[in-house]
Specification:
Length: 261
């Protein structure tokens, strides 16, 4: 696939995500009276688009099992896409019918994904380790090892706490529920700042700044959502989604520019 076609495909995915975020915000604010199946249609459509790719991924794993590089990457891409598809359908079914199941079942794909990625050392794979050290010689204890496991663990804790809070098994303040997410963003931002201050050569400073923008906007989104759900602020849900919508547009344009140049 040419770079132009890749750019169009990725931009289409970002457009679908932006459309879904817009529908969700308008539904929460009562502007749209559609069912949740209609509101989540863009994400469900994306799931249906991913299903053939998942089948192709696992077929390639079987065909190219003697290749030490391709099967490992395809397995993790395929697994992540498969878990996303399940989560998209379970969360839509739950929102459409609150009695459909409990939130633990809805979040089970996220539990499985974060647990598996927590248990995996990315540098344990020969192909990944070889590529990492070939690019970043003399860097044995840098970002991948530093960020990977703590972020996965904190996300797993957040998903568990969120499911417990939504099921009302705990009645903690929402600040306790969001605290793992805030710690994740704070941790990533501090690591990026440290890498910038130490003139970390393994990554382009522009790339680090893009990641800094990403985690900063996610942090703003999380704080806005916390203020909304805790009742401390009574603004429209559309306000909460502004950082996410801006990120989706920014990264969509950025990826297209990079791939087409």
């Amino acid at each position: 696939m040419g770079s132009g076609a890749e750019g169009c495909l990725i931009f289409s995915l970002f457009c679908i995500t932006a459309l879904a975020l817009s529908f969700i915000a308008l539904k929460i604010d009562g502007v749209l009276d559609w069912t949740w199946w209609g509101v989540m249609a863009p994400l469900l459509l994306l799931s249906l688009m991913l299903l053939p790719l998942i089948l192709i991924f696992f077929f390639c794993i079987l065909v190219y099992s003697n290749n030490s590089d391709l099967p490992v990457r395809l397995f993790w891409f395929g697994l992540a896409a498969f878990l996303y598809c399940i989560f998209a359908f379970t969360v839509t079914a739950k929102l459409a019918d609150p009695d459909w199941s409990n939130w633990y079942w809805v979040f089970s794909p996220l539990f499985c994904g974060t647990f598996l990625f927590t248990a995996v050392d990315p540098l344990a794979f020969p192909d990944f380790k070889h590529k990492w050290h070939s690019r970043h010689a003399n860097l044995d204890n840098v970002p991948v090892k530093v960020l990977f496991k703590p972020v996965c663990i904190l996300l797993l804790v957040f998903f568990v706490l969120l499911a417990m809070r939504l099921e009302e098994d705990v009645v903690w303040d929402w600040a306790y529920v969001f605290s793992p997410l805030w710690l994740t963003n704070l941790f990533c931002i501090l690591v990026i700042f440290a890498m910038l201050q130490l003139s970390f050569r393994a990554m382009d400073p522009a790339v680090l700044l893009v990641f800094l923008l990403l985690f900063s906007c996610l942090g703003v989104f999380e704080v806005l959502v916390y203020l909304k759900v805790s009742g401390l602020r009574d603004y429209a849900a559309r306000v909460c989604f502004v950082p996410l919508f801006g990120l989706v547009c920014f990264f969509g344009i950025l990826v297209c520019v990079v791939l087409t140049n």
